[in-house]
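FIELD: query
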Amino acid sequence: MSTSWTRLGLIAGGGALPRLVAQACAADGRLGCVIALSGFADPADYTDPLVRTIGQFGHVVEDLRVAGCDAVCFAGIVTRPDFRSFVPDLEGAKLLPKLLAAAVRGDDALLRVVVKAFEARGLKVVGADELSSSLLAAAGLIGGDVDAAPHQPDIAKAMQMAAAIGALDAGQGAVVCDGLVLALEAQEGTDAMLERVAGLPENIRGTRQTPRGVLAKRPKPQQERRIDLPVVGVETVERAAAAGLAGIAVEAGAALILGSDAVDAAARRHGIFVIGVSPDS
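FIELD: result
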């Protein structure tokens, strides 16, 4: 764990990732506070959380200051706000013009504005992988006991397509089956994309009985990697299996695995693989 900061504030969205980050940081004795974002995080998952909306930038910064935090980590699922009904506090209102200008350029541009705003207040922004290195995807087989080699062409093409849409700041995931691009991820997210794949005709995709095709997830090439790294958990494995896929590929060292043992067990149960691949391969 980093030694360049002393006390962390966790800004928690939905899902399992912020819970794992909170546990890792609390075990080290440097968790200052958890700010549970209303509508995304479940406050019951944390001890004495502070509940704020995503527009309360000034309140959040003050919460971090009172808790003695000199660093902040963003973790969990947070969807893009509807700026037409956005209700910021005073400091959030000052930030709003920059957010609106960045929003039309894509999610990564929007997140960079948020990161810079916290850094301008003297807070070090740290990635979830810095707090718990065990979350970071390793190279090689991560889950399951299926040979991924026969699926290498689909892995390569799916990774290529994920990089292509990432360069456009569109999404982080792609699904390819027998060389055919079945789906590209956009604002709907990975889960909804996999549901779309599950609804496609079985002649162009795999089934639970005969899995075919690969989901690839990787960061956008230009992405701010301290925030919004691709995530794979048990639910991702479950949905990939339901869509008839043979496996999941992520960029080694640039994706987070939520509970490696549980992901491995789920992959084995469904007869699919989860693999970390080098971006150069």
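FIELD: remark
The mean pLDDT is 93.
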